[in-house]
Amino acid sequence: MKKQLPFELIYQISALMISIILVHLVYVTLIRPNADAILQQQAELAASGEPFVQDRSLYVVLRDYEQESCFILMFWAIAIMGLKTRAAMGERRLLNEDFIQISEGMSILPEDTREFTRSLQALPDDARESLLPRTLLAALHRFSSTRNVQDVSEAVKSVCDSESDRLDSELSMVRYIAWAIPSIGFIGTVRGIGEALGQAYRAVEGDIAGVTTSLGVAFNSTFIALVISIVLMFLMHQLQLIQERLVLDTHNYCDQRLLRHLQVRS
Fold this sequence. Notes:
By secondary structure, this protein is an all-alpha fold. The chain has one domain (66-261). It has helices at 4-48, 58-62, 65-93, 113-121, 125-128, 131-146, 149-169, 172-198, 200-204, 209-257. It is rod-shaped and about 100 Å long. The protein starts with a helix and ends in a 9-residue tail after the last helix. The model has no long low-confidence stretch (mean pLDDT 85).
């Protein structure tokens, strides 16, 4: 697991930089130019005194810096979750492998564990560090040393619980991002309301364009942030479901393929 930390750190930093570049590029080349053109057109119509219906354009809703920051964080979190989903699915494929090759009705004695241990230790490093081989190795080592099936069951449970805690702790950054996105939206709300209050004197004089624009910043930023937060929380819970099923299926694999075959001679 220690070998994966530098890779994950580099991956997360790279994903953040790519997200910043791509989202900012879309904003500079597409969203803000169109939003500015629409706002300019609406300002000219308002100045002319002609009645018009103000359309709610998606470009205008997305144009501010708070929304841009929310999208950057969303794509960063999706990239992190994508890496963890790929890792979980790769480990899940190992559940289809028959690491404990034993016929139905046969038993595994403490003296037999060395043979199964050697086959597991001969696996490639990436496969051997996965959850299922680590759990099987821990169980076989415990059975060889204690000759107690109950101790083996406790060893399997301990490894699975530790893995579940590790997977949960590694989602802390995604949880922080999911919390930060609505907070950025509320920052936009405060900024917009503050700008609207600063232009209240112009509204008294009959010019409400500045006030409405500032209030649009306030409500649009919160709206986009909450929508992104809903999407992100859904994806995060799907990832947690995949990881929890991986741990549970690993525990069941050990029960069905190993524990029920263990036997101690009296």
